[in-house]
Amino acid sequence: VKFVYDFTEGNKDLKDLLGGKGANLAEMTNLGLPVPPGFTITTEACKVYLDSGEEPVALRDEVSEHLTALEERMGKKLGQADNPLLVSVRSGAKFSMPGMMDTVLNIGLSDKSVQGLAQQAGDERFAWDSYRRLIQMFGKTVLGVDGDLFEDALEKAKEAKKVTVDTELEAADLKKLVTRFKKIVKTEAGRDFPQDPREQMNLAIKAVFDSWNGDRAKLYRRQERIPHDLGTAVNVCSMVFGNLGPDSGTGVAFTRDPASGHQGVYGDYLQNAQGEDVVAGIRNTVPLADLESIDKKSYDQLMQIMETLENHYKDLCDIEFTIERGQLWMLQTRVGKRTAGAAFRIATQLVDQGLIDETEALQRVNGAQLAQLMFPRFDEEARTEQVGRGIAASPGAAVGKAVFDSYTAVKWSRSGEKVILVRRETNPDDLDGMIAAEGILTSRGGKTSHAAVVARGMGKTCVCGAEELEVDTKRRCMTVPGGRVVEEGDVISIDGSTGKVYLGEVPVVPSPVVEYFEGRMHAGADDADELVEAVHRIMAFADRKRRLRVRANADNAEDALRARRFGAQGIGLCRTEHMFLGDRRELVERLILADTETDREESLKQLLPLQKQDFVELFEAMDGLPVTIRLLDPPLHEFLPDITELSVRVALAESRQEPHENELRLLQAVHRLHEQNPMLGLRGVRLGLVIPGLFTMQVRAIAEAAAERKAAKGDPRAEIMIPLVGTVQELEIVREEADQVIAEVQEATGTQLKLAIGTMIELPRAALTAGQIAEAAEFFSFGTNDLTQTVWGFSRDDVEASFFTAYLEKGIFGVSPFETIDKDGVGSLVQSAARAGRATRPDLKLGVCGEHGGDPESVHFFHEVGLDYVSCSPFRIPVARLEAGRAAT
Ligand code: PEP
Ligand code: MG
Q: Among 174, 502, 532, 701, which residue is least crowded by beta carbons within 10 Å?
């Protein structure tokens, strides 16, 4: 194998091997852009080193070969006393990990060559400044010396000289500083700063390899879900200097605005400086546009290069450049990060420019970005004080009174207050408080911390790891930078999309994208903003491309109408249990408590017209589109009062000698219905089989509602769905009864009804015997929530809050299987059941209605295994449409 590539040998598609930076340096070199010559050590070399603790044997020789070639090309030798070649050694992994790993500049300087550099550049100050930077960076990153010691020494030197900026230090001052820095290295690292340039280089390369496993880097990778085994490449690049005087400088630039997507001149420039000065904010940068008046020639060339890069990459690029005495050099480029809104705008702009086509435009955006754009957001105009920033863990904009424990969160929210739960970090005990709160703010922990995982699961706004905030749960307060104290009850606002934390109430405005989907803002209208135009066009691209249909999970007319506005092509899951709550609970209680057949029939009779009316409204809202109605699914005790509460009521009544016959009967029923594992108990199709008349009442309501809609010239398209079927016999029995009821209704109303009957596939046995079940089912809808629960043996109601954080941290899975379909396990059952079902009944309709129906990655999977539709909650419909379109490209 080859461990070292010259910049002329690579290209942008070799990111796995050369890292992002190395691959793009090679690409720019081959485009003929001014890149300082250099070479890249591959990630393979890094992997060998990380696995074995030793650099690959061949590496030293290969580096020597490339170094010699570089020296010949540049006409000078690394660290040569009279005319030194200097190089930078930079990390560069496949995925950008900003600031996470090491870089050392000015390698090759020593007590001797610093003189040579001074002569060569004709600038003594510059040479000593470069040398002190080398010792500082090398000391810190390679030798592990505390960086503050160097910073302090630099501060002292400035104070002694009574100056405020480093450029005011003269050669003599810097010489002294070098001596001081070398002493710091000697005492702290226990060795001299190495004078041999090749030793400097070898140590720096090793340090970059090692930095892959630094704590910061590891944490970042966990948060960003970057695999730990990729390793980093190392770029050795001949130095160019931005600190050679006022005709030199360094800057960063974007080929278009990463926030708005607009084309223009975006970036910052810093005269007479090296790259790290920009990041460190030592001096103030000027807007890139100012470069035009500072150095017109370089500016024009830069604009030209930016255009070349955009046309070549066909995307927004960000770049780092340096100007050395009027000569422009490109030090880095990559396809730049952007906000969700900019992603949509840029994609359509590039289509308009003819750089990409619709299919490619769909690849430039994703459902997660669209979801982000659909959250209400804080009004950007509002002037509110930002006091901290953490990790944007779960999007949304939340305002409320700060509370510091779950008990208070629950108590206050019960009395109608909006609260933000503030903790150092959360644990499963905080669950009640998290549910009660508008949002969650923690000062510790990353994107996979308990708070983040649970909040995302609940769809609740969360900012975590806001480390500048000092949370004191004992004293019920937090201290913000600058010393202000936020007490319990003070109002704060948190933005889960940016991670920002504000004091006071920030006004919230609805998302323009939701306004658009709701039909309150129109693309093409004068006041429609550019984002809405872009989203409108991208959605049209997606709808044209996709094969999967998208339906909604909705159980009332209001949700159904919204779903329709959002583009739903039907209802994939109407959960009828929601129709048994509220003021109907009493009737359901009576049904459960019925001692005699007459009692039971009476309560069912009363429920029938109510149910029927529900369906009439639903069919009207979804006129002409399929509506899948699932018969009652949850265990009956869910409709009865809580056992503890009821026991207390009975005991109280007893002690007061008040009548409590009804409570007592209820309590007995609760005890009778109690199950250790209700999720595996009397629910779903089992209810239909053991409670006479329940399912048939529902089927009758559906059939009568359909007949009524038909009489009203509507177009009802009802589908009846039986939940939790494990064997075809269950389905056959229920089906026979249903068919009979439907026949009765047809007869009585004189209406011909076409009601499809199908089943959910949400138990492993159902999936495994799908071929048999399809004999009795006209459609399957995969209930991937229960299927995940039963395939993994994970309680869907408990695990996310209990041990999933540990599982995520240990890397057992990267994301909860309740969020993204577990392809290997649950997914493969879906695939084989779909196949078996279609083998029995080629026109079997296949859908999915678990939460996964609105999850981007899962949508791609369902497309691949050939389902007909996904069904998800109304707000996820645009996301599912977009991802279905992306999956089909
Ligand atoms: C499922 O199990 O995936 C499903 C959609 O049904 P529910 O979530 O109501 O159990
Ligand atoms: Mg289910």
A: 502
